[in-house]
Write a structure and sequence with these properties.
Aminopeptidase; about 160 residues
């Protein structure tokens, strides 16, 4: 166990088991966004690839997945993507616990910063990550998708 919040354990998920359950939780977390997130098209096979490419951190309440974030090395930073908290578990410290676990992963890997992207259509997410000390360091848009801000935090 890396962190606890609201009786939730946050830890790396390395097992090939239950990837469909994790993706179902992620899909439930992202279904409300407009335009729809590309994560809604991702499958357990995509998640297995994320496990091979980096670290999948999960938040669990008992046997249930209630949050996750996918992490991968990108240059001298740990890149965080698809941070999700199941809607029924929001505002209970799950995101904070996931962020602390990601920080621990970055430090263990000797990486001096965290990096993420936030859709410009989600200003609440930009404010959320700002409270963790992230700052906008760039912007972008890929293949006609929703424009995003690049945010970074030095550890």
């Amino acid at each position: 166990m890396i962190e606890q919040a609201a009786a939730v354990d946050v830890r790396p998920w390395r097992s090939p088991d239950r990837l469909d359950d994790i993706m179902a939780m992620v899909h439930a977390s992202f279904v409300e966004f407009t335009p729809p997130s590309g994560v809604l098209k991702e499958t357990a096979a995509d998640l297995a690839q994320r496990q091979r490419d980096g670290v999948v951190l999960v938040a669990m309440a008992g046997d249930a997945f209630v949050g996750s974030v996918f992490c991968a090395r990108k240059g001298d930073a740990l890149y965080l993507t698809r941070m999700a908290t199941h809607p029924a578990w929001r505002r209970r410290g799950i995101g904070t616990a996931l962020m602390r676990a990601a920080e621990a992963e970055a430090r263990a890997a000797g990486l001096p910063k965290l990096l993420l992207r936030v859709r410009k259509t989600l200003p609440g997410n930009l404010a959320y990550f700002s409270k963790f000390g992230f700052a906008v360091v760039g912007e972008g848009q890929e293949g006609g998708r929703t424009p995003f801000d690049v945010m970074e935090r030095t550890l």
